[in-house]
Amino acid sequence: MADKLQWFREAKYGLFIHWGLYAIPGGIWEGKSAPHGTEWIMKNMKIPLAHYKKLVGQFNPEGFDPYFYVRQAKKWGMKYIVFTAKHHDGFAMYDTKVSEYSIMHTPYGKDIVRQLADACEAEGMTLCIYYSQMQDWEHPDGNGNTWDYDPQKQDFKRYFYQKALPQVRELLTNYGKIGMMWFDTPYDMPLDLCRELADEVRKCQPDCLINGRIGYGLGDFREAADNAIPVLSQEECWESPMTLNSSWGYSHTDHRFKEPAEVIRNLVRIVGKGGNLVLNVGPDAFGRIPPRSNEILCEVGEWLEQNGESIFGTSAAPNFPYLLPWGDLTYNDRSNTLYLHVQNYPSFPYRILLTGLKTKTLAVNVLGEQEPLRISQSYEIARDEHRLYILLPEQCPSAVDTVVKVQLAGSAEAQVIGTAKW
Description:
Distance between the termini: 44 Å
Strand content: 15-25%
Number of strands: 17
Order of helices and strands: HEEEHHHEHEHEHEEEHEHEEEEEEE
Oligomer: single chain
Helix content: 10-25%
Structural class: alpha/beta
Number of helices: 9
């Protein structure tokens, strides 16, 4: 399992793409704004399937360029792409033989997954596939559509064997090597069917990872709640899916984008706690990435170009006893290196404190600079407290995140508090 997960452990940062018919309304239906995510517009506004299906005849994303997507993801510093082959509305963004409800029956008429798979292979990018295994608002026996179909008359197993399982098999046999199957919203899907789905993935592609949302602990790693970060570091593999704005699919009205500094801060926190960040963009109906999304991710990519050593190939940092008012930590256990991410740069005397580091410090410098920084490392026996003071440059090297590289004499060991009397 360790070898199978190795690429994922080292990748740290991926691109999520939510794209489908829902990009056409973009969160607005018959003049009314939909609540919550735009990709849920069909369910949240209870749009009759017959009306929603009219979008098929309008979908013609001639602006889609798979090589642009992949090359931009690389420029942004991302190491893998997760693409929504079928979301909850049941529409397939690829050439499926199982259902006519697919991209092949639109005016566009070209297989999006095939194009992305070819571009990823050519560019050396890992392609992962999102598939909504339980919810399907188009199929009469899929979960979720209670306004077109009577739930009392539904047979979920019929949907599972007629559509879900065959489509997952298609995706794993027709598009080359898939790095991960990204399942979602398992709800109360029966354990035996979840296990059968996992077995099918491993039968078709033994090295393909399965995310935790297949349910019942059958995945290869834990999937965090949407837009969530654990409080403590985790030794096991995990991933946090996040949106760049407030919606997963394209929105005409949602302009509440995260600024580059917030994206970097989230990435650092997630990586420092041993996880991966998969960050979402929602292309518009023409297949174009929103300009603001591109601007933000390019700025993050520029920061990663300078500071990627502190992100990629790292492991979970120790859980230090106190919150850090100046920022966060990442850690490389192979080189015994702590990276201090100073996001709130101190005023005079430009000093930060790391309390609780027991391991001896050998050298400290701003990442990318040769000049050593002045430090003071001490232990107060009466208070049982380890302290590392670092004097930073007077001029702040990065307004977003100044990375301080701390070379240790051995593995990073953090002090545990709570047993002594205060």
